[in-house]
Amino acid sequence: MKLHEYQAKDIFADAGIPIPESQLATNVDEAVSAAESIGYPVAIKAQVHVGGRGKAGGIKIASDEEEARQYADDVLGMDLKGYTVEQVLVEAGVDFTNELYVGVTMDRGEGKPVAMVSTEGGVNIEEVAEENPDAIAREHIDPAFGLHPYQARKTVYDAGVDQSVARGVSSILTTLYDLYEERDASDIEINPVMITSDGDVVAADAVMNIDDDALFRQPDLAEMEEETYEDELEKKAGEYGFDYVRLDGNVGIIGNGAGLVMTTLDLVDYYGGKPANFLDIGGGAKAERVTNALDMVFSDENVDAVVFNIFGGITRGDEVAKGINEALESFDEIPKKVVVRLAGTNAEEGMEILNTDLVEVEETLEDAVQRAVENAQEASQ
Amino acid sequence: MSILVDDDTRVVVQGITGGEGKFHTGQMEEYGTNVVAGAVPGKGGQEVDGIPVYDTVDEAVREENADASVIFVPPAFAADAIFEALDTDLDLAVAITEGIPTQDMAKVNKRLSEVDTRLIGPNCPGIITPGEAKLGILPGNIFADGNVGLVSRSGTLTYQVVDNLTSRGIGQTTAIGIGGDPIIGTDFVDALSLFEEDDETDAVVMCGEIGGEDEEEAAAFIDEQMDTPVAGFIAGRTAPPGKRMGHAGAIVSGSGTGTAESKINALNDAGVPVGDTPEEVADAIESFL
Questions:
Q1: 3-class secondary structure, B79
Q2: Which of residues 44-103 of A touch B (CB under 8 A)?
Q3: With an 8 Å Cβ cutoff, are B182 and A270 in contact?
Q4: Is A189 a catalytic site residue?
Q5: Residue B245 phi, psi (nearest 5)
Q6: C-alpha span between A214 and B185 (Å, rounded)
Q7: Which of A5, A209, A353, B271 has its CB surrounded by the most CB atoms within 10 Å?
């Protein structure tokens, strides 16, 4: 899960990382009064879960009340890459001479956390990583020991950070790693750390993403989770607890296991169709879950035909067949043609139960996908 | 005949008293696996379907000479269960559990480098030597004894490809599901090198997916160090960048690495045919035999 900048900054501040004075505002008047109390210039920053807010117009610098009112009005309610801005952080403008990047993330190739520092902060760090990887100093961390202070210093020196602020930046990096570990972060970043004209360091942004699998031991962070979905269908998938991704095709796909569902998508594409979604019902799904999955794909108005691909291991074919029957029997007229392919655990029992008046059945994955692609083509004509 | 497990393997089930643990212990025994003990803290002295349960893995190993463990322990306690397995002299630990925090696995990964025990998983279907033993949740009936090795990041995709092989009479030496998480124990290169050393394995199927760079590393290994022919499959060609497709690991960063295309290219460059469909993978394997 992602934390908002203001939430991450609260956590950073509690841990002793210097941040600019700021206040959260949900309407223009609040934003203006926050700006007045902080003093100009202020940054007005959209609090939404998207990257590149600045470029997209979600961060503006106001130098007086008139601008504060105008910019708060501009940013609040704006659509930022599909998300509506409902709150802004009003933050003291920082008079800076330099911008750094400081972050900690997991290097999955090494299986170890990695600390990163770069003097090319304030810009898209992914681009820097791509175009000039040497501009980012990296240090792998033994998770059994954590980040030793000497490693933090080494990373900062390797990055070429100015001697006068090296101690302050090292301290920020050490604190970031401690937070990364304590709070089960998957990524934790400050871009930029600003070096002020007085020679101080201050975190002008804050990114903190938490490992969803670890939320059980971070209950206070789990409470901050906001359900943000790109559309109604993804919201529904969240309620049903499905792994679901909406795509722009017309062949609805339901299957079990991420690898097999992705393969089904790939085969739809291979046979000339376009997948409408990724929907993994997961392992051991019972009849109700299957019914919910069909409800999901039928609710997608772009779907012209459906393929149901189950290879049972933990999941049982008879349970799946029962779910398909129950879902389809509730309709007077089934809205889209459904092709079913059942294999693996209890597939034979499933095939006996399955009401073949309601669905088409194919024995192999390839045949099932081709049939569904043909159905979609016919239905869309 | 097999790598890592066979009908001599003596298995302890960690979490044998839980729903999953109990059910799959029954399935494993039915398949012929020699399950000799369970290990569950606080449940020592009990029995599950005639199998003695011990409080610790250490005790199960000492009392029953167990040499492999299968872990069906909920995610919050799973890393601890893996550490416990790694602190005995087991040869093998198989972690089925899905949803273990990544930082826990980083610590496990560190410990792995210090011990002799091999870890498979987590978040995996396990390992099977057809006709002899299975450690995990794989459906035994689709496998057949034979001369093809299989290693895969995805459980259900493993079943699919095995089905394509078995239905045309091609059996397997051993099939290993290594799991789709960002940090796992045994990886492609480890499994491939075991198959390369196995005299009975005449060809290998490798099923990968988007995310990470393990398949690219495997391609380099195959190119430089393998004589046994390998055929591949990569799931996720149509996955949009930046979206998480089920598996924690199955996400494309958008920066060009970890995509299906880069993996397929790397494998092709190493002389590995990559099927567009599972059926084409079976075709390639058939042509090798």
A1: helix
A2: none
A3: no
A4: yes
A5: -100, 80
A6: 19
A7: A5
Are A99 and A45 contacting, i.e. CB atoms less than 8 angstroms apart?
no
Active-site pick, B118, B134, B247, B263: B247
A263 and B137 within 8 Å at the Cβ level: the answer is no
CA distances from A260 to A369, A375, B159 (A): 12, 21, 9
Please answer whether residues B71 and B78 qualify as being in contact, where contact means their C-beta atoms are separated by less than 8 angstroms. yes
pLDDT at A227: 67
- pLDDT at position A109, please? 85
Burial A358-380 (b: 16+ CB within 10 A, else e): bbbbbebbbebbbbbbbbbeeee
Q: CA A343 to CA B142: how far, in whole Å? A: 9
User: Residue B94: how many CB atoms within 10 A of its CB?
Assistant: 32
**Distance (Å, rounded) from C-alpha A46 to C-alpha A58?**
5
The confidence score (pLDDT) of residue A230 equals: 66
For B182, nearest residue in chain A (alpha carbons): A108
* Cα–Cα nearest to A284, from A255, A252, A316, A257: A316
In angstroms, the CA B179 to CA A256 distance is 15
Phi-psi region for residue A267, left (φ > 0), alpha (ψ -120 to 50) or beta? alpha
ipTM confidence:
0.91
Whether the Cβ atoms of residue A304 and residue A346 lie closer than 8 Å to each other: no
Strand, coil or helix: B93: strand
Contact map slice: A 163-192 vs B, CB within 8 A? 181, 184, 186
Q: What is the pLDDT along chain B (289 residues), one digit of tens a residue?
A: 578 999 999 999 999 999 999 999 999 999 999 999 999 999 999 999 999 999 999 999 999 999 999 999 999 999 999 999 999 989 999 999 999 999 999 999 999 999 999 999 999 999 999 999 999 999 999 999 999 999 999 999 999 999 999 999 999 999 999 998 999 999 999 999 999 999 999 999 999 999 888 999 999 999 999 999 999 999 999 988 767 776 655 555 545 568 899 999 999 999 999 999 999 999 999 999 9
Tell me how far apart the alpha carbons of residues B34 and B6 are, in angstroms, rounded to a whole number.
9
pLDDT at A83: 84
Identity of the residue in B75, B103, B213 whose CB atom sits nearest the CB atom of A109 = B213
Min Cα distance B207 → chain A (Å) is: 9
Q: Which residue numbers in chain A have pLDDT < 50? A: none
Residue B200: exposure state from Cβ atoms within 10 A (0-12, 13-18, ≥19): middle
Predicted TM-score (pTM) of this structure: 0.93
- For A217-245, b/e burial (b = at least 16 CB within 10 A) is ebeebeebeeebbeeebbebbeebebbbb
Give the tokens for residue B242.
């930046």
| pLDDT score at B33 | 98
